[in-house]
Specification:
The structure holds two protein chains of two kinds. In chain A, 0% of the residues lie in helices and 54% in strands. Chain A is mainly β. The termini of chain A are far apart. Chain B has strands at residues 4-7, 10-13, 19-29, 34-39, 46-50, 54-55, 63-76, 86-92, 99-101, 105-109. The mean pLDDT of chain B is 96. The chains are: A mainly beta, B mainly beta.
Chain lengths: 117, 110
């Protein structure tokens, strides 16, 4: 059974860096799929942030590209998200998900990150 | 960037009724690239339909998807109490952003 679990600080200061990790179990992260991050501000819809392949190739949402880095750790079977220069607008539930062309079939439970001083 | 517009914003129905949710695209979308998700409060989205009309594993057959081009539909034939949730359509793009979502339709109990 494929499972994904997000972890990281729930509170980040404005202008700081948001850092999250997604631990994958039940499948190798090198299995050929892409691995995505999606976020959802409180009470709002879903926004795709970006994705990474086990080869290290990445794709990012142009609206966030200048502030986002997604990386992969094949030895730990996990991938990570960093968002720089955060503001209150980055407050959201962050989900990691497995991307099977052309949809997202397995999702983590999500983790709320609040940007506040 | 392709924009997905879902209608209605909120749909109020009773258990046992039929629900029809719409997703319109600003440009033509390949049927292979269109998916639907269900999200309940406090939970992650759950994949329902992919390729516009294929049910994901474990999804009851009361859920069906149809459509092509710029107009897609999710139909729930007979609503069960557990079906009241928010539904999102999503398209995969060959240009960026790779995945875009509609704004969602909230299915309420009448």
């Amino acid at each position: 059974q494929v499972q994904l679990q997000e972890s990281g600080p729930g509170l980040v200061k404005p202008s700081g860096t948001l850092s999250l990790t997604c631990a994958v179990s039940g499948v190798s992260i090198s299995s050929g799929n892409w691995w995505s991050w999606v976020r959802q501000p409180p009470g709002k819809g879903l926004e795709w942030i970006g994705e990474i392949h086990h080869s290290g190739r990445t794709n990012y949402n142009p609206s966030l590209k200048s502030r986002v880095t997604i990386s992969i750790d094949k030895s730990e079977n996990q991938f990570s998200l960093k968002v720089n220069s955060v503001t209150a607008a980055d407050t959201a539930v962050y989900y990691c998900a497995r991307a099977v062309r052309y949809y997202l079939d397995y999702w983590g439970q999500g983790t709320l990150v609040t940007v506040s001083s | 960037e392709i924009v997905l517009t879902q209608s209605p914003g909120t749909l109020s129905l009773s258990p046992g009724e039929r629900a029809t949710l719409s997703c319109g695209a600003s440009q033509s979308v390949s049927s292979s690239y269109l998916a639907w998700y269900q999200q309940k409060p406090g939970q992650a989205p759950r994949l329902l339909i992919y390729g516009a009309s294929s049910r994901a594993t474990g999804i009851p057959d009361r859920f069906s998807g149809s459509g092509s081009g710029t107009d897609f539909t999710l139909t729930i034939s007979r609503l069960e109490p557990e079906d009241f949730a928010v539904y999102y359509c999503q398209q995969y793009g060959t240009s960026f952003p790779v995945y875009t979502f509609g704004q969602g339709t909230k299915l309420d109990i009448k």
